[in-house]
Design goal:
Elements (H helix, E strand, L loop, with lengths): L1 H12 L6 E6 L2 E7 L2 H4 L6 H13 L8 E6 L3 H9 L4 E6 L24 E4 L3 H16 L3
Parallel strand pairs: 3-4, 4-5
Antiparallel strand pairs: 1-2, 1-3
Amino acid sequence: MREALTLANKAANAGEVPVGAVVVLDGEVIGSGFNRSSTDCDPSAHAEVVALRGAAKRVGNYRLLNATLYVTLEPCVMCCGCLQHARVKRLVFGARESRTGAVVSVNEVLADPHALHAVSVTEGVLVEECLVPLRAFFAAKRHGD
């Protein structure tokens, strides 16, 4: 999660919502990313999707069986769908997302008994540290910085 936090800060420095993500398989980071939607003019360029794309290319398969995705903020519906399609084994996230969180906050996409694939979930890891860049980013936005 600390690597994901480093990436979240890179996102903030790029003017993006500060979310970072890493994909780990067998103790090794195989994919990483941070939000790039504005930079890339790509609505799908969320940190999770960027990290999953990199991981899939690295292993040569879009299915990332036994992989864990660490992300600083609770994923949205799109990202949860990507987790399921990639067959990620486990999701670990820091802070809840009260507006678009699709794991526990607004929707429970991964808990759906009809879901394509079961993903185990751990939440609240380094939650306070994950909230720091998000709070700073949105405070700056409110003050016109």
